[in-house]
Request: fold
Amino acid sequence: MNHKKLFSCILLLYIFFSCNHTLPTVPKPKGYLRIDLPSKKYYLFESNCPYLFEYAANYSIVELKEKDEQKCYFTLHFPVFNATLYVTYKELLKNDDIKAFIENSHNMAYEHSIKASSIDKKSIVIDSTKVYGLVYDIKGNAATPLQFYVTDSIKHFLRGALYFNVKPNYDSVKPVLDFIKTDIDNLLHTLHWKY
Reply:
């Protein structure tokens, strides 16, 4: 009988201490997988298009030449991170073209203001290669987190938009986005127009 009383006391003490709610229960926060970022290596993109630039070796580049009006359009696919940079080229034929192209780029960036928490603009001014433009850093769960346009203000206009082929979640794509931003920054700073 003594063993039964001892067992009952231990059981009651165990139940009493296990039901102690002095510590609040907190759900575990969402976690994201660790992302291994590849090393940087750049190649020169040369073609019949009126520009050249360096792009990261991790991208596969595809020139789109289906239609005459889409001459020198291309995409940079980053299959490891399921991202694509769409780049379009326009030749400036009239003085009014540049205003229309800049306004169109601005409107396309600000279409995402509904989902964006903010849109930061960064000027690109590289006098040595006559590359001038803006980079739109779109924060929040927008479809495209980064867009840009660059021009020489005389003959060339290049516009780009980065898309991730997943449901937008800014927190989860942020490390990859920061990694890709350095590649896009390198592309813009190595861009040279052909005359």
Summary: The beta strands are 42-45, 51-56, 60-64, 73-78, 83-91, 116-126, 131-140, 146-151, 156-164, 192-193. The chain has a mean pLDDT of 87.
